Amino acid sequence: MVSATRTQTRRVVEIIREAYDRTRCGLVLCGTDVVEEGLLQGPDAGLLDQIVQRAIAVRLPRQIPEADILAVAAAAGLPVQSVPPPILKELKGLRMNRLALLCAMTAEAAERRGQAPDWELWLQTRRALLGA
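^ thats the sequence. predicted structure below, dont judge the formating
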């Protein structure tokens, strides 16, 4: 919605309406506070008013909860019971897409090496993908 043109926004709204009209199933529209602000105050606020009137806002935290961070790392086989504090701090600063990518790439690198994923390999993977 933030980067869309008015025509694209109208098309999105029509698709949402059509999906609801055909299914009568509640729909979940997910976005950040930027999307919510756009719905309420943006240039297309009037066009989107019907959606806003039927919506319930659920705001997710800006920072990924530590439990979710550790769940992603654990899914990649990383030893979450022994995360070094500097790495945990770095993990907390990542967005979910980058966190998931780094953990998955670490697991892949560990598998190629025939070893278990560990935090040293995670650091090496981060450096290789993102630089120092």
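DSSP finds seven helices and no strands in the chain.
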